[in-house]
């Protein structure tokens, strides 16, 4: 593992979210975490207490009582960071929290950097780099599926898959390296056919992992869902009903929405990022024209399209022509007929030829549950088994997997051309390096800084 010496300072940070609350938690980690806390704590002698115990007392600066607190002790190596860790639960006043933190700084602690607790846990061998990144995903998870995937990765599901692949490659790399030691005797320890079979198998698994990223990205970041249609089709009304708040301006005047409006909701454990866009029409209004242009940009960036139309204003043939024009890439699309409360039954029946049509009244909230169900089915997560299926959610992992795949391609090409063992071994080492970047068996300070500075302070 490549990284510079890790600081042995004792760090401190507020672990709870900013703002006033009933309780705040201040966390320390490092060799002096217990002794520093003990120097300001009035109660039991913390240095004499057992690991995983909680103690009531007061935090004092000289004789001044700052607060009554509970102190939780985690003695190394039985803690999150594998160092001495103390968590002080105090009242949630910003003033109290800052007074206690300042006092701890005076006694020898320093403020933690973003992600430094988890970085120490990684460097001290508590878990690997992929698991550490899953901690951040778990904190930011906002749906049942994103929580489930993050939990599996934090427990090492993805890491185990990568380590297994890497171990098999290491075996062959060592056999080829051994051949180089007996170069003059022309011996072959590594069976080339077995190596080809292994590499083909690893590449198949990598393809499956890379394919899972499309799904993993949806689970982690939500489904970008664009609501498009002609002016006054009811797009803003629909967005407001889905969000259950007056997010978008609703007016009978066409062209009210000049720019896109974005918000998200959770449907059956899946996060949908809804984007209400400017109505699609020819216009001489420069501002509205910019809005229409942005609508087309958002369409190209979306993963799911809701095409909303006023059923009283158009024919089925016009709708089908517009669907073909707007969706040349054949993205998942739900056609939605709005204002059915104003249309006679025979008018609604005339649109039966539109595939997967959902009929609603956005103003009255009619059939919105049917629309939500259609959206979930279009995302097609129904067969997903997050307990057994390994899902990639991190773009850094995708990059490393792509580099691994390319290196393995070079190994196969080298074997096909009968290249010498040292050249084949060099390509295998490249593959091993890229796989090692995922779990942190290969790291640099820049890589670690890039990962952990994205964490919140106190984690």
Automatic annotation (TrEMBL):
GO biological process: tRNA methylation; tRNA wobble uridine modification
Function: Exhibits a very high intrinsic GTPase hydrolysis rate. Involved in the addition of a carboxymethylaminomethyl (cmnm) group at the wobble position (U34) of certain tRNAs, forming tRNA-cmnm(5)s(2)U34.
Pfam families (alphabetical): MMR_HSR1, MnmE_helical, TrmE_N
Domain Guanylate kinase-like stretches: 222-413
MF term (GO), any: metal ion binding
Matches recorded under CDD domains: trmE (cd04164), TrmE_N (cd14858)
GO CC, any one term: cytosol
Cofactor: how bound: Binds 1 potassium ion per subunit.
Source organism: Pontibacter actiniarum
UniProt xrefs under InterPro entries: G_TrmE, GTP-bd, GTP-bd_TrmE_N, GTPase_MnmE, Guanylate_kin-like_dom, MnmE_dom2, MnmE_helical, P-loop_NTPase
Protein's UniProt name: tRNA modification GTPase MnmE
Protein family according to the UniProt entry: Belongs to the TRAFAC class TrmE-Era-EngA-EngB-Septin-like GTPase superfamily. TrmE GTPase family.
Subcellular location: Cytoplasm
Binding residues annotated for Mg(2+), in chain numbering: 236, 257
Cofactor: K(+)
Gene3D superfamilies named among the record's database cross-references: P-loop containing nucleotide triphosphate hydrolases (3.40.50.300), Probable tRNA modification gtpase trme, domain 1 (3.30.1360.120), tRNA modification GTPase MnmE domain 2 (1.20.120.430)
Domain of life (superkingdom): Bacteria
Assembly: Homodimer. Heterotetramer of two MnmE and two MnmG subunits.
Residue sites binding K(+) per the record: 232, 251, 253, 256
């Amino acid at each position: 593992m490549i990284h510079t010496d890790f600081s042995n300072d004792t760090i401190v940070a507020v672990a709870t979210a900013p703002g006033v609350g009933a309780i705040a938690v201040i966390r320390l980690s490092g060799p002096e975490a217990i002794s520093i806390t003990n120097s300001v704590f009035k109660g039991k002698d913390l240095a004499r207490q057992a690991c995983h115990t909680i103690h009531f007392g007061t935090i004092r600066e000289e004789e001044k009582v700052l607060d009554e607190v509970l102190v939780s002790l985690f003695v190394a190596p039985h803690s999150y960071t594998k160092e001495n860790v103390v968590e002080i639960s105090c009242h949630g006043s910003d003033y109290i929290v800052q007074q206690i933190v300042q006092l701890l700084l005076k006694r020898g602690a320093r403020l933690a950097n973003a992600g430094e607790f988890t970085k120490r846990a990684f460097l001290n061998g508590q878990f690997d780099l992929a698991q550490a990144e899953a901690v951040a995903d778990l904190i930011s998870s906002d749906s049942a599926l994103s929580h489930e995937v993050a939990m599996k990765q934090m427990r090492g599901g993805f890491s185990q898959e990568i380590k297994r692949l890497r171990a098999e490659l290491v075996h062959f790399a060592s056999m080829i390296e051994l051949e180089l030691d007996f170069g003059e005797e022309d011996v072959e320890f590594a069976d080339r056919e077995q190596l080809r079979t292994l590499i083909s198998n690893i590449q198949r698994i990598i393809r499956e992992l890379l394919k899972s990223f499309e799904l993993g990205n949806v689970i982690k970041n939500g489904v970008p869902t664009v609501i498009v249609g002609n002016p006054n089709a009811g797009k803003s009304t629909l967005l407001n009903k889905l969000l259950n708040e007056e997010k978008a301006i609703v007016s009978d005047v066409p062209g009210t929405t000049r720019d896109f409006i974005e918000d998200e909701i959770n449907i059956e454990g899946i996060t949908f990022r809804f984007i209400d866009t400017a109505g699609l029409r020819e216009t001489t209004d420069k501002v509205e024209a910019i809005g229409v242009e942005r609508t087309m940009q958002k369409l190209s960036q979306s993963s799911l399209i809701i095409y909303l139309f006023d059923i009283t204003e158009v024919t089925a043939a016009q709708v089908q022509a517009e669907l073909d024009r707007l969706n040349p890439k054949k993205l998942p699309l739900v056609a939605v007929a709005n204002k059915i409360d104003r249309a006679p039954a025979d008018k609604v029946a005339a649109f039966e030829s539109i595939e997967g049509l959902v009929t609603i009244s956005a103003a009255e909230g009619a059939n919105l549950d049917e629309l939500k169900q259609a959206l979930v089915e279009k995302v097609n997560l129904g067969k997903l088994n997050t307990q057994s299926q390994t899902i990639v959610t991190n773009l850094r992992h995708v990059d490393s997997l792509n580099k691994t795949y390319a290196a393995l391609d070079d190994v196969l090409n080298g074997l096909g051309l009968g290249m010498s063992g040292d050249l084949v071994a060099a390509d295998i080492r490249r593959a091993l390096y890229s796989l090692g970047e995922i779990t942190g068996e290969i790291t640099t300070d820049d890589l670690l800084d890039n990962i952990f500075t994205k964490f919140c302070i106190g984690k």
